[in-house]
Amino acid sequence: MDSASFLIIEHAPDYETGDMILLNKTNMVFGRESFYWKPDVSFHNVFVSRKHFLIYVESNHFYIKDLDSKHGTYIKRDFHQWGFSLSPTDG
């Protein structure tokens, strides 16, 4: 895994446009924190599930997978449920 890979925020609760999240693990869960659960990256918003989506690395490619979240995971306004390969221009 490339240690210099990161996600640039365009619009998200608790983050400013342009904020960067370092993708420093093979599997990173994004979601809403609770008393019993702390994801790798937290969003404080009722529309974000506790375990909302996963970004993972496979064969040196990044993928995003919705984790059966209530409101879904969208890339470029398209709904994605299964592993979707991310490219540097996705947003």
TrEMBL record:
| UniProt-listed InterPro entries | FHA_dom (IPR000253), SMAD_FHA_dom_sf (IPR008984)
Gene3D superfamilies tied to this protein: 2.60.200.20
Report which residue ranges the record marks as coiled coil: none
Q: Which PROSITE patterns match?
A: FHA_DOMAIN
Residue intervals of the FHA domain: 28-80
From which domain of life does this come? Bacteria
Q: Report the protein name in the record.
A: FHA domain-containing protein
Q: Species name for this entry?
A: Metabacillus rhizolycopersici
